[in-house]
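Researcher: Go.
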Amino acid sequence: MDIITLDSDNPQVKLAISYGLSQSIKLEVFEDAIQDTVKNNAYLPEEIANRGAISLSRRAIFKRMGEIFIVRSSINLNSEYLDIPEFFWRNPNLEPFYIKVKKFLDIPSRVMALNQKLDVLQELLDILNTQLQHRHSSLLEMIIILLILIEIVISLYPPW
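Model: Structure:
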């Protein structure tokens, strides 16, 4: 457990430090959401490698795609939480406190790791989408083959 001790009673310094702490906590929420999503879908690439296909139904694949998209979009839509707050534009003398907290809590590298996990989730989303497209095209091919077969059978037997 880390402990941060403040030598200042200045409320603006405390606010500057609290911005860094709040970003770390928000980042942790994102990290947990991505970790859960990765854990829930980790078997899919293995299944593709072993079986060559995903055993999920079309509806289940769409649900997974939705879950992955929700996690990605919630992080991307809330990325302003990871920017430097406007408070420091008006108080540039307090920004060093904020930067020290960010470095102490390793926020920049955590954001980079988060982005890499998002990239992996995007690849998984692409794989699921490809799987759905493949299933759909296979179904269409089977329907066309069946229709051609019916046409051949009809042409072989003239109407009575």
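Model: The first helix runs from residue 11 to 41.
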